[in-house]
Write a structure and sequence with these properties.
This protein has twelve helices and seven strands. It is α/β, with parallel strands linked by helices and 280 residues long. The chain has a seven-stranded mixed β-sheet, sandwiched between helices. The chain is globular, with a radius of gyration of 22 Å. The termini are far apart.
């Protein structure tokens, strides 16, 4: 009787596992269909090239800061309606005014980039180029392309380490909250929120461990994109608008100023290097 009962338990477990497998396959198919529908809805009304905004800002101040932007379409500024409205331009203008120094902006970020493409972006710069501070925004494409968190963080860490070895200060805007994308249906949006926050947390830990600074974009600007989507998002409902980039630049600025020694304290959502926290 015990043998018969054991067989019944094993058989029941097998049926349950089989049912779970079928459910998982069905869910995976459903999510893939949602992703295809979201890509069709978003489309590419903005094209694949961002405005070029590299130049010297506020030349009258002199003693230029070399500002480097690496990363994906957000770092490149896709969605801005003019060169002066990109993330790089808005950040450079604000940095110059607060630091009272001119700012030379160099953008190596490229639309569509994942974290694995960061080393190539860095390698594309002239051999003798050295930035005073590098701002990196990356991660959204890693999530949508289902790149493993460990792989994403490894590539990011490689570039942070290389920049720090050159004497460049590093500020990373961690992966934005993909749950704010109203063009993406549920439950896919909820899964995107969870995955993007997991990646952001891992990025923060790696960057601060290596001596860089991290800004949790999901915390400092995410709420604005959730509550004001018509203003914060561009035409495609996926990339920031000029207003969205303005808000993002203002959010990143405190850590950039702290990295350059212009200001000491940073607000909520900004994370200094671990060594700085240990010494405080």
């Amino acid at each position: 009787m015990r043998t018969s009962r054991s067989r019944q338990v094993v058989a029941g477990a097998a049926v349950s596992l089989a049912g779970a497998g079928v459910t998982a396959v069905a869910l995976g198919g459903f999510l893939r269909a949602q992703a295809r529908a979201a890509r069709r809805a978003i489309g590419k009304p903005l094209g694949e090239e961002a405005h070029r905004s590299d130049r010297l800002y506020k030349k009258k101040y002199g003693d230029a800061v070399e500002l480097l932007l690496l990363g994906d379409s957000i770092a490149a500024g896709l969605g801005a309606d003019s060169p002066e409205h990109t993330l790089g331009a808005q950040l450079a203008t604000r940095l110059a005014k607060r630091a009272r120094r001119s700012v030379h902006l160099v953008t190596a970020a490229r639309v569509g980039s994942e974290s694995s493409m960061l080393p190539a972006q860095l390698a594309s710069l002239p051999p003798d180029y050295r930035a005073d501070v590098a701002v990196i925004v990356v991660g959204g494409n890693d999530v949508t392309h289902r790149v493993k968190v460990a792989d994403s963080v490894r590539h990011l860490g490689e570039v942070v380490r290389a920049l720090r070895a050159q004497g460049t200060e590093v500020v990373v805007g961690t992966c934005p909250d993909l749950g704010a994308l109203t063009a993406v249906p549920q439950p896919l949006r909820g899964l995107g929120r969870r995955a993007s926050r997991q990646l952001a947390a891992a990025q923060r830990e790696e960057v601060t461990r290596l001596g860089g600074r991290a800004v949790s974009l999901a915390e400092v600007v995410g709420p604005f994109f959730v509550t004001q989507p018509d203003e914060m998002f561009a035409l495609d409902r996926f990339h920031p608008s000029a207003a969205g980039y303005r808000r993002t630049a203002k959010a990143v600025l405190p850590s950039v100023l702290a990295a350059l020694g212009v200001e000491e304290h940073v607000p909520f959502g900004h994370h200094p290097p671990r060594s700085a926290r240990a010494g405080s």
